[in-house]
Write a sequence for this structure.
């Protein structure tokens, strides 16, 4: 089979598990962090550099690529893998999050979502069937159903209708995807906001439709962390144990542990790349702002415990200078380091599950990260 997931190790202390997801472009060891390459590029990083730091899979966005350069252009260039020169797995989001993030530019109906393009104002109608067709043209290994991410906070009745529509859209996506199961795995998405009954309903409804993997959407949208944790516990108690679980758009070091210890296998987030462009870097000693004057004459690397290219070759003082001078290299080096730290952290989490010392590793890793 092109797609197969196997849990290989379990924590005796939590619901954390390590596994392997087979794809047409190679295996993915889980838990895994997926760098975000929204427009078919992880900002400032080449594919070769991503491979060097151990990225197993990257994420691209259906909505943005459909706008520019257009999915037909990507297909004509051989699909995302060939166009990007990336020979490892790729996951594409369906565009459903843009229903949430571009709320002022869209109108949601039972048939789909009518958008005003943020590029030129032209009208776009995105349906479940269209979202699947775009993703088939893009050629990612893992694709997502089209969903609606309810805002936070939202009334129970609104979230209920949203979750029900997401389930109907999921059925339409699965029908549209028929015949492509061997080359692309279509994941379902569980919604339901912060309501336990709706989360449970959405999880059961999505599992009943049947998918080779399941994503948990609608979190990290402003809710308190205890509500995120509760939603994960409700959903993961229902999702199949033998299939991968993907927590969408969540990715602080603290959130990695929140998710993994509740049974999550896959994560993505723009945090490491977006933060890097502002000078904010993540280390085993906590978060640093490389723009701060305290680093001006510091000849130490960003982190002495990091072996990434930036830390092997450049000092805090030099990187601070690059930020002050508004040089492109500043963002590149900070991004390189942040992605390496996030990927190494997830590798450490995976190792701690295999060695069954997850809680000890969590305590050490988050010692400098207040909750």
């Amino acid at each position: 089979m092109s797609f197969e997931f196997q849990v290989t190790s379990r924590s005796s202390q939590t619901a954390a598990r390590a596994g392997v997801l087979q794809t047409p472009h190679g295996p993915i060891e889980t838990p895994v962090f997926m760098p975000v390459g929204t427009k078919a590029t992880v900002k400032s990083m080449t594919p070769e550099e991503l491979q060097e730091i151990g990225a197993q899979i990257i994420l691209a966005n259906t909505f943005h690529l459909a706008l520019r350069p257009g999915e037909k252009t990507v297909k004509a260039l051989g699909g995302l893998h060939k166009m990007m020169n990336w020979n490892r797995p790729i996951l594409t989001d369906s565009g459903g999050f843009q229903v949430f993030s571009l709320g002022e530019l869209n109108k949601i109906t039972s048939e789909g979502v009518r958008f005003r393009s943020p590029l030129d104002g032209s009208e776009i109608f995105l349906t479940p069937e269209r979202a699947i067709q775009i993703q088939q043209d893009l050629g990612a290994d893992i694709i997502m159903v089209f969903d609606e991410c309810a805002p936070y906070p939202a009334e129970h009745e609104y979230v209920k209708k949203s979750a029900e529509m997401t389930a109907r859209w999921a059925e339409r996506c699965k029908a549209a995807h028929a015949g492509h199961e061997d080359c692309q795995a279509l994941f379902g998405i569980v919604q339901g906001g912060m309501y336990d009954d709706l989360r449970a309903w959405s999880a059961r409804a999505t599992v009943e439709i049947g998918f080779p993997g399941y994503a948990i959407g609608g979190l990290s949208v402003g809710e308190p962390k205890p509500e995120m944790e509760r939603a994960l516990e409700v959903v993961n108690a229902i999702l199949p144990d033998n299939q991968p679980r993907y927590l969408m758009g969540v990715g602080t070091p603290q959130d990695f542990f929140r998710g993994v210890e509740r049974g999550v296998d896959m994560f993505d987030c723009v945090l490491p790349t977006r933060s890097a462009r502002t000078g904010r870097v993540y280390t085993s000693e906590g978060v640093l702002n490389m723009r701060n004057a305290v680093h001006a004459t510091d000849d130490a690397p960003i982190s002495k415990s990091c072996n990434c290219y930036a830390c092997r070759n450049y000092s805090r003082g030099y990187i601070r200078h690059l930020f002050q001078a508004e040089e492109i290299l500043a963002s590149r080096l900070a991004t390189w380091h942040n992605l390496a730290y996030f990927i190494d952290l997830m590798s450490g989490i995976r190792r701690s599950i295999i060695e069954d010392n997850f809680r000890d590793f969590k305590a050490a890793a988050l010692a400098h990260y207040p909750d």
